Amino acid sequence: MATARNEDWSYTGKTGPNYWSSINKKYALCSTGKQQSPVNIDQAIKKSLPLGINYHNDLFKIEKSQYTVKFIPVNHSNSINLNGSHYTLLQFHFHTPSEHTINGKQSDLEIHFINENNKKSIITIGVLVDSGRLNKEFQKILNANPVDEDFERKVVKINLQSFIPYTSKKFSYTGSFTTPPCTEGIKWIVFNKPIQFSEEQIHSYQNYFEPNSRPVQPLNDRDLFESW
Ligand SMILES: [Zn+2]
């Protein structure tokens, strides 16, 4: 990975998730926080979630970090609506294996779509990925070749609709970023039904990127909600 930036935290050993808060005072919430993510999702309370997802075909710039790759919209045309508030997509990225688990089951990958409104409040949409059918849009990302020196100068055109399981039930809860500084107050919406990438696609991705999933965190006294 040619241009990866070095973080002071990691996913294994003495700078792994259990030690994040001791690396830097700014990361204190990673251990003192009571609303941390990811979580295991099992029992949930039914509640309506007036969510509209306006994702479509768009151009994305590629920005590589040490443990993942971010896709940043060139335009600001991908957005979501929740309770009448408009949130613009800031970036999406991948984790492998998944960070959220459903009834204790981990998926092969998880996609995070970070959306922000004009009050700087953030909704992250989580989509789990299991092995199955080939996904043509994900193939465009693999074809951009993350080990290529020019990877970060490339712009890819991706239709995000093929990453959203529109007919799936959704879970929601209040949590945090899953990487330091583990900032809280993040609204999470996680789709119950995984989408599919082919086994070969998942293996290709895992060849490019090391595991980057934080273990599930205690729910404490938070409620999990489910909706269609
Ligand atoms: Zn993430």
UniProtKB/TrEMBL annotation:
The keyword Metal-binding applies. SMART domains: Carb_anhydrase. Keywords: Lyase, Metal-binding, Zinc. Its EC number is 4.2.1.1. Residues 7-228 form the Alpha-carbonic anhydrase domain. SUPFAM superfamilies: Carbonic anhydrase. It holds the Pfam family Carb_anhydrase. It catalyses: hydrogencarbonate + H(+) = CO2 + H2O. The keyword Lyase applies. Belongs to the alpha-carbonic anhydrase family. This is carbonic anhydrase.
